[in-house]
Amino acid sequence: DAKTTQPTSMDCAEGRAANLPCNHSTISGNEYVYWYRQIHSQGPQYIIHGLKNNETNEMASLIITEDRKSSTLILPHATLRDTAVYYCIVRVDQAGTALIFGKGTTLSVSS
Amino acid sequence: DTEVTQTPKHLVMGMTNKKSLKCEQHMGHRAMYWYKQKAKKPPELMFVYSYEKLSINESVPSRFSPECPNSSLLNLHLHALQPEDSALYLCASSQQLGGTYNEQFFGPGTRLTVL
């Protein structure tokens, strides 16, 4: 699976949009971009995933650049409960593979 | 029910003890996972079961012994652990191992302390 690079930490004011970048310059054509987050003392939680089109769900939006070498997770109106470690994971969607977590970005949302 | 449960929440054990961690899901998932997470580090994959058979073992020491007695249950048997094995142990499940759009659901973890 391709390697990802994320900033170690980011801050965001409550109510503002949080934009979390991820670099995956070696991504292959059949690799998806997944985002999970882990709130302190809890298990990781799936947020969203995509291949090449932008995706949106009730939690977040995922913007993938046209060359697919980077992506941005957007939390449109961050709340204090969004304070967590956010993991960007690139993986092939094929049988027999599991998630491998990188270091992630610690997002701190403050009032 | 989209919940993965893990028991116990906390466990303290000595280096000569034998203990077990338990994980349960009732979502009909056929893939189950054990991860180990040290403080301020990402989760590290340990084992994966697919259809109750061990599919992935990430070179985990034999003092950790996984078991999948049925499709809903996953155990991790612990024996002769070292203090450096102290960590949060996370269980997860998914509909199958890999494949398209295969969200992993995680339990809250067991916080293990080895004295």
- Beta fraction of chain B: over 45%
Radius of gyration over C-alpha positions of chain A, nearest whole angstrom: 13 Å
Rough shape of chain B? globular
SSE string of chain B: EEEEEEEEEEE
By DSSP (H or I, 4+ residues per run), the number of helices of chain B equals: 0
Rg of chain B, nearest Å: 13 Å
Please count the beta strands of chain A (DSSP E, at least 2 residues each).
9
Question: How would you explain this protein's 3D organization?
Answer:
The complex is a heterodimer of chains A (111) and B (115). Chain A is built from no helices and 9 strands. Chain A has 111 residues and is mostly beta strands. In chain A, the strands form 2 sheets. A 5-stranded mixed β-sheet of chain A has the order 1-9-8-3-4, with no helix packed on it. In chain A, a hairpin with a 4-residue loop joins β5 (55-56) and β6. The radius of gyration of chain A is 13 Å and the shape is globular. In chain B, β7 (64-70) and β8 form a beta hairpin. In chain B, the strands form 2 sheets. In chain B, strands 2, 4, 5, 6, 9, 10 and 11 form a 7-stranded mixed β-sheet that branches. A 4-stranded antiparallel β-sheet of chain B has the order 1-3-8-7, with no helix packed on it. Chain B is built from no helices and 11 strands. The A-B interface holds A 36, 38, 41-46, 49, 85, 87, 92-104 and B 4, 33, 41-45, 48, 50, 55-56, 90, 92, 96-109.
Entry keywords:
heterodimer; A: 111 residues; mainly beta; five-stranded mixed β-sheet; four-stranded antiparallel β-sheet; 0% helix; B: 115 residues
Please specify the SSE layout and strand pairing:
The complex is a heterodimer of chains A (111) and B (115).
Chain A: E1 9-13, E2 18-23, E3 31-38, E4 45-50, E5 55-56, E6 61-64, E7 70-75, E8 84-92, E9 105-110
Parallel strand pairs in A: 1-9
Antiparallel strand pairs in A: 2-7, 3-4, 3-8, 5-6, 6-7, 8-9
Chain B: E1 4-7, E2 10-13, E3 18-25, E4 31-37, E5 44-50, E6 53-57, E7 64-70, E8 73-79, E9 87-94, E10 105-106, E11 110-114
Parallel strand pairs in B: 2-11
Antiparallel strand pairs in B: 1-3, 3-8, 4-5, 4-9, 5-6, 7-8, 9-10, 9-11
